[in-house]
UniProtKB/TrEMBL annotation:
This is DUF1615 domain-containing protein. Residues 19-70 are annotated as: Disordered. Residues 45-69 have a biased composition (Pro residues). It comes from the Bacteria. Pfam families: DUF1615. InterPro entries: DUF1615.
Amino acid sequence: MKRAIGLIAGAVLLGGCASSGPLESRPSPKLPPLPGEPAAGSRPVPVPEPLRPPPLPTPATPLPPPVAAKPPVAAYPGEREGRTLVARFIPPQVKDRDAWAGDIFGAFSALRISPTPDNICAVIAVIEQESTFQADPPVAGLPQIVWKEIDSRRERLHLPRLLIDAAFLKSSPDGRSYKTRVDTLRTEKQMNELFEDMISEFPHGKSLLGGYNPVRTGGPMQVSVAFAEDQVKEKAYPYPRRGSIRNEVFSRRGGVYFGTAILLDYPAPYTKPLFRFADFNAGRYSSRNAAFQSAVARLSGQPLALDGDLLRYSGGAPSAEPSTTLTALQRIAGRIALSRQDIEHDLRLEKTAQFAQTPLYTRVFAQAEAAAGGRLSREAMPQIDLKSPKISRKLTTAWFAERVDARHRTCLGRDPSSLP
C-alpha cells in the first residue's frame, strides 16, 4: 500500500513539471481587444490559472517506538582472569595462594556462579573458619575418637573384644598394623583411607564398619559426604575422579567444589549473608524455616524450637512420627483452611525454594502478620547446638555463622573497591 501511494504521488509531481499549468477546456467569452492584444480570430493566449498551494505530502505510516538496546551481558571471566580476581581476596599469608585461587574459581566456573566479591569472600570465609586454608586439616584427638566409635560398634554387634583386637594387629595394605594406623591418625583423609581398608580387609569389616564413618564431614570446607554423593546425581563432577566421591571430598579441589555448591548453588531469600552461613552449618533453608516456625508458634501458642527442621527425619527421609511443628500446625488447621494432608504435603518441600510459595507458608504468615499488626521477618537464626565427634566444647549454629560473617567482612576489606 505504501509503495502504491508513493508511485501515485511521484506521477503527480512529474506531471506538474511538464507544463506551466492546466489549459482551459472551453474558449473564453469574446471581449473587445485591449491595445496590443491580437485581433479576434488570432490564436488565443493561454490564461494560466491562479497558483494553487502544492498538495500535502501523503502521511507516512508511524514508525514503531524505538526498542531499548539490551545491556551487553558481561562475559564470564577466563581462567587466568578468574584466578587473578580470586587471589586478590585470599589472605596474604596463605601458602599456595595461586592453587587455592584456581580451585575456588574452578568451582565457580563449573557451577556457573557469578564471581562477585560477595560470593568469592563467602567461600574464602568458610575455608578460613573450617580449615585455615589446609586441604586436609588435622583433627585433635582423632585416634581417641576412632577407638571410641569402633568400640561402640563392637558392643552393638555383640562381637568379642579379643576378635577385634586380633583383627587390628593384622598388617594393613601400607605395611603397618591397623592398630598403629589408628594410633597415629592426624587427619580426616588418613582416617577415611583407614576405614576403607578395614571394610575391605577385615573378616567382619562390612558388618562392623560398612556405611559407617565416625567423621562424616571433611575437606577444607568440612562438607558432608552425603551431600557430595547427592550432588553428583544432579550435576556431573567436573574433575577426573580418584576413587570414590568420599575421597574427592577430602581433596582440596573436591572439598572446595562441593563446599561452594552447598554454600552458593541455590537461591537463598535472605537480606544478609549471615543467614546463608547459618544454612551452610544447619542445612539449606534452615534460616527461612526457623522464621516460619516462629510464625507458627505465634499463631498456635505452642512453643517451638527454632531449629529449621519442620519434619522429623530417619535415614534422610521424613519419619512417620509427627514433629512438634506439624503438631502445632494441626492445631491451627482451621484458621489456615488446610487439611492435615495438605499441611504434610507442603512441609515435605521444606528443603526447597518452592516451600515459600506453598499455601501453607503464605497463609501462616498472612494470619500471623494480621495478628501481629505488621510484617514478620522471613529469616531467623536456627537455634542448634553443634554435635560431632570432632567437637569437644559447646558450639552453636549462631556461633559458627557469626564467626564466618566477620571473616566475610574482613575479606571484602582486602579489596577496597568491593566495599559498598
